[in-house]
Amino acid sequence: MGMLHIIIEEELYDPEFVKNWVYGWEEFVARVKEYPLQRVSEITWVPEGKIREAARLFATTKPACIQWGVAIEQSINCVDNNAS
């Protein structure tokens, strides 16, 4: 949420994409505003400057994505791998 706060605040997103493809943008922005950097830093113990730097790096790198999850969970042997 801290990264999103910076991306929205500094308009580091594609407004044309948001206009044409995103439903609920205003509600999303309102929710993100509940997490200013100071609050996110207190929750995560990550310094505000690092959050800001990461947000800018992610938002200005094209193409970019954030991997969620553990890759081995997508294999047939995931239980064996995760258990060891």
Question: What would you say this structure looks like, in words?
Answer:
The chain is mostly helical and about 80 residues long. About 60% of the residues lie in helices and about 0% in strands. The protein is built from 6 helices and no strands. The protein has helices spanning about 1-10, 15-20, 25-30, 35-45, 50-60, 80-84. α1 packs antiparallel against α4 and α1 packs across α5. It is globular and about 45 Å long.
- Cα Rg: 16 Å
The count of β-strands is 0
Distance between the termini: 33 Å
Derived from helix and strand composition plus strand pairing, the structural class reads mainly alpha
The averaged pLDDT comes out at 89
Summarize the entry for a quick read.
The protein is mostly helical and 84 residues long. It has helices at 2-9, 15-21, 25-32, 37-44, 48-60, 78-83.
Walk me through the topology.
Blueprint: H1 2-9, H2 15-21, H3 25-32, H4 37-44, H5 48-60, H6 78-83
Keywords:
84 residues, 6 helices
